[in-house]
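Entry 14: structure prediction run for DUF4440 domain-containing protein. Input pasted below.
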Amino acid sequence: MRKSLNFIKSTIVSVTVTTLLLVLVSCNTSQKEKETTFDKIAAKEAIAKENKIFTDAFNKGDSIGAAMTYATDAKFMPSNQKAVSGRKNIQTTIAGYIKAGEINLSIKPVEVWGDEMMLTVEEEWSMTDKDGKEVDRGKALELWKMEDGKWKLFRDCFNSDLPCMPPPPSK
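Run finished. Output tokens:
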């Protein structure tokens, strides 16, 4: 009887250990497969394409087209201004930039981190006037998320590389 109980105990332990090992291996394998299936180069190219859509719209004075590159729950965080939430409010803010003067915007992704659902993108940008003279340049860190099968700006935070303007003289 004792040998029978020992046999049953050792069988249960063996089955349990084997099951745990199989679960651990399968979890590890699926994580590795997930990591290898995400293509950061393709993601960076997709972001560059969306940036082109944004800059083409912006440079043509189309604030609606530019705002459509943002997620519905996006936040736009320009330097020296309060953050703006939501696509409609972002569109209004972009329209203000467009109305401020004829400028040409260019954006270049530098580095991309993330996965198939959310990306962090480091970018460089520059603005030139109608004569091609650079009027501003800077950098950005943005979060992009997958929405309706496309990468959309989720958080947009940027600032200038140029020195701040001095305050107006006091009276």
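Notes: The longest strand covers residues 134-147. Will compare against the previous run tomorrow.
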